[in-house]
Amino acid sequence: MRHTSIGLILSAGIAFAQGAGAIHGTVTDPSGLAMARAAVTATHDERGATRTAVTGADGGYVLTALPVGAWTIRIESQGFKSFRQAGVSVTTNQNVRVDARLEIGAVAESVQVTGEAPLVDTRSSTVGTLIDSRRVLELPMNGRNVIALAGLLPGATQVAAPQMFTGDRSGPTLSMAGSRGNQNLFLFDGQHFNAVFRNTGLNYPPPDALQEVKVLTNTYSAEYGRNAGSVFNVVTKSGSNKLHGSAWEFLRNHKLNARNFFAPSVKPQLIQNQFGAAAGGPVRRDKLFVFGSWESLRVRPASLNTSAFPLTAEERAGRFTGNVRDPLTGQPFPNATIPAARIDPVARSVNERIPLPNRPGGQLVETYPLPQNNDQFVVRVDWNFGRHTIDGRYNVNLANERDAAGQVPSYAPLDREALVQSITIGDTFNWRPTVLNQARISFNRIRSDIVGLADFYLGDLGANFPLLGPKIPPNLNISGRVNLGSNSVASAINVNEAFQLDEAVTWNRGSHTVKGGFQLLKLRYLNRSYSLVMGSFNFTGTFSANPAADFLLGRAENFSIASPVLEQAGLQDNAYWFIQDDWRVNRRLTINAGLRYELAFPWVHPQDFWATLRLGQQSQKVRTAPPGLVFPGDPGIPRGLIATDRNNFAPRFGLVWDPFGGGRTSVRAAYGLFYEVMNSDIIQNTSQPFRYTFTFQAPPALQDPLRGQPQIPFSVNLSNPQFIGLQQIFFPDPSLRSPYVHQFNLNIQREITRDFAIRAGYAGKLGRKLLMGLSANPAVFRPGATLANLDSRRLNTAFGNNSVISSQANSRFHGFEFEATKRFSRGFSLNAAYTWSRSIDMASAIALGAAVPNVFNLRTQYGLSDFHAKHIGSFSWLWEIPTPAALPGFAKGWQFNGLFTARSGHPLNIVTGTDIALSGTPNQRPNVVGDHRLPSGRSRAEQLAAWFNRAAFANPAAGSYGNAGRNALLSPSQQSTNLSVFKNPKFSVFPVLLCTSQQSTNLSVFKNFPLPFRENMRLQFRSEFFSVFNMPTLGAPSNAVNAGARMGQITSAGGARVIQFALKVLF
Question: Hey, what domains does the chain have and what are their CATH numbers?
Fold first, then answer.
């Protein structure tokens, strides 16, 4: 009893409903009066699990936390015939209504009811969409990542569903109805399934391992929180009393594919195999079940690089065309020839390692193999043990891919590797018919590594340069010609861990269903990288008037270097409580009320290797630090650099009204307050003395770049910390508070027929205290200002380009949503959605690079969100084509499926491309001096050459900011159409932006062949065509004024047609 009371008082965490729904209804006698104390029993059709309830005084009952699947409902009361309804489909986070009117008679007599439950939800005000098992398996997904189906949802934009997960910064994301792309809660069987570092998602197992997907999009209950976007809840398949399974292989080959719209005639090589198997069945009938799945991906593509223009054979010998100036004399070299003795030996060594140009104009066209490998395994066990239902699931995802790392892949390739492991164990305990306890413990671990494959560094090329870590080639950027290697992370180890403990209790008492619980979530990340230890050089022609000649002479404009092993680490503890009461006021009205409390402690470094800025304060912990640079442990400086936000209460309120009382219409309205997670991205502090990063102007020679520079401390020595040069720091605002979003909706659901329903209504969001990056120390313009004296004009000349994370951003979203659903019946199902909306904000992401150009006037940041799309539409269907019985077998069993989505163009932000204001801030905008619109009816070629009127924009006067608004233009629309036809086929359509219509049509043809080995066993052959019409999906036009004639041009397009074959065995 003590355990029960604690669970009821405290409440739950992000979610316990791992693939669970509810059945509710009202039991009446023949005259329509409510029947109290009627016994309700639900039995799972495939696993034999049972749940019981007793009707209250109003005749109502609720069965909660039911695993997904088909259930049989039996209702009994003394003196009345028993009621029985089979095949009641329970889906994730869905309230299924089953009413019963008992007839007078003996209990042994029964009344059989057939047919599906109503599609209208008359119990919950949460807005969400179900993607059931058939749609998961039969709608075409290019890459077989189920997150791609988020494109079907009302309000969803910028859906990123990578085929492989190779790093904690590149996982799945989506923007849902005005929310940022990394503010979604991904759940996997109730387990937190977000990457720690940037709160992106993780890749789920293949579709054949998944039961269904439920996405909650607005004003969900107090049970869910921590994010203000969507809740993406995925459920694994379970074993049942019958053995079921499948095996498959999908094949691709570049010989069948089309060219990219902007690519040369040569098609890059692609050989892809995706194969696996899944099966589930009983270990002990009605008691113990097991399910397992495995899939492997082998991709053998070749990168086709066309943007490199390395030095020609003549140039490598020192012979150039045009004037080449001698930096020593300022006079041209005779005959434009650099003497052999003046050629830097490092440059000579580099030239020996990269290919010569092989195309006219000095172009290098090079293909390089970039293999990709991915293996996924998942196993799940379900055990019905008395009044306990126990489930456990373990999955592992191992990925590896080659990265070209620059414009010449053979110079410094990288391998990116990732290992994702997760385990969860849950127990649902039916204490008594009115009390249900749920407990869950889960653990995620992600390790992602970057490994350099080139075994040489600057010293091996002939330079006087220390080896600071692994051997990594230097980054050499020859302006306008070629960029060799990576100027960011070339070797790294990243580890993310998440430990989760949940406890919740559901109590049905009369007309109230009360659920409460708590969650503990412990997060950890560790990042060790060797960024810039190899050295990064920029050659711009400053010395010889020719960037390639500067390189040959070894004279770089600037040179950057950093100390090795940047250790970014963080720990965070989170605790969440909630209580939710669903009160059935009467048969027509239900009120959903809840309260959630979130306690998210700030991130801390295990060794306090962080710093922050407090102007005028002298550090007592590190006394040699310059004034203003302070550390955890200094007076007033907490370990996490910011104070704990302790007032994060999140109320939720909604009501559901059935105006006619028949369960076929519902009017729903709701409001909720949702807090956004502050992921570890907000603290990426790399200041001295924990790491040293320097940029030297005009180093003396590539052969000896550090000559004449102060001694650089290449290791951290906290017993004698050193501070060299101008300090730069990235820090969170000390007044930072948890960002939050108000959500509200009003919508009407109506069941048109027994299997067809529509929903229409309004959805809104208001974001407050959202995070944004700002320059904390811009330069102030004054007469005589230049880029060279920028640091001397900063607000605080003791520091460099400081950046701060601030909670000053706001946002707002208003949208009309329409959704139509036809449940699969008579061989056909349909889902359609449309959204008309407007999303405005000050920042659409944190923007670690401090992307706000004018920090003195933040009002200029208000504009359309980066992910805004005025119109979003989707349409999908499954159709089993009917055939007369007299036709031969080959003509029977075909299925035609489709998926179509479209959206209008995303905003385009016009920038100057240069620091016109001389402030040191990026993304400065120009002046608007004309109409950016061009005449309609232009040809495709004219639109590609000029998407907008570039003469409408001009740079402002030096030292000033332009008057152009943020995100003032729209980029091209994009469209994709996916089709599938099969003997059980699949057809899908997928458009995406709507300024200039762009289309990609995917077609697949399936044929099923029955196999004689066992009942219901068949062989399925699939032919799938992605972007079958090869209509280009145009990229965004060039948006910078300094691009000159290239401004407004579109030079990129999405993927071309891909053909895929597959063979599948199902049983």
Answer: 2-113 (2.60.40.10), 127-236 (2.170.130.10)
